[in-house]
Amino acid sequence: MSVRTGLVGATAVAVAVVLGGPAVAVPAGGDHASTRQAMDAAVKDGVPGVTATAKDRHGTWSATSGAGDLRTGAPRSTADDYRVGSITKTFVSTVLLQLEAEGRLSLDDTVGKWLPGVVRGHGHDGRAITLRQLLNHTSGIFNYTADEEFGRTYFLKDGFFQHRYDTKTPEQLVAIAMTHKPDFAPGTSWNYSNTNYVLAGMVIGKVTGHSYASEIRHRIIEPLGLRATSVPGTRVTVPHPSSRAYSKLAETTTGPTYDVTELNPSLASSAGEMISNSSDLNRFYTALLRGKLLPQKQLTEMKTTVKVDDIPNAGYGLGLIDRKLTCGVHVWGHDGGIHGSTSSAVTTADGRHSLSFNFNGDWSGDSDAVIEAEFCGK
């Protein structure tokens, strides 16, 4: 019940997806005991530490488990900032849908219209791919993080410690994908590709004349007062309060554990470079699902999903995943994986019950179990 929605590609453990649809459920008594137990179980399974915040009709609940720093033994903080990886995609999609609502683009526009000649080579043709197909991963464009050389350079130990401060431009990341054949003809199947959202960020820049980062700040971060949320660009550190981030930097889940807190997130670009915390993510997804960021037409488009065989009882919309939990509750959101950080953020369709959490490790732990515990009480 997993799909690779992180930046981690084929060289690291897949993280569980987050989820979707209308309904409200609260754990028995609203005490979140099951959620706490699931967090503790993740730590027992090998995750260094977990931080989580939930908001429901009983109020706001926050908790931590495990360590934020393996060297000192310091615990995690409920206020921790952390790298959110592919949760960035929901922010990017929201901006593109806002631009559509303003009449500045159409999701049926081709990539070639806005980025002529960029998606070309080995069978790729941006003139045959729409912006909608970028956002719901039906474009067929090769995922640059699945490139073997990229994986060795940035996800395995020797390459990571030599290259973690490198700056990569969006154009360079797309060029890596263009050295491979497409996964399939546009619109004929589904495959998660970080390249899609690097291109989406480039389109935002072409349409607005501003970087995708500045548009996210102006349109989402500042209006919602997301004080812990940032688009770091090439900044290699995570603001405080924060914990250390850990990885095996290997294709196995055993062996030494490395501190990977510092890295240049330009390798993720608009597919996954953002930083936030649990409270901010809850506020963002609640505002989004309540229609405070998009008109109803665009929110409906965002919530129109395609079937994903890799995720039972789930569908992928436009940067938003909808999944039915075992107790019948639907939650909407996304997850994110990047070096040393596995995050999930979900909310019910009415925005009344939300949960966001982070593991400060990328090789173990059951994200699904934490979500099931919070919304189904088990």
From TrEMBL:
Keywords: Hydrolase, Signal. Residues 51-75 are annotated as: Disordered. Its EC number is 3.-.-.-. InterPro entries: AmpC-like, Beta-lactam-related, Beta-lactam/transpept-like. The keyword Oxidoreductase does not apply. The keyword Nucleotide-binding does not apply. This is Serine hydrolase domain-containing protein. It comes from Streptomyces sp. R41.
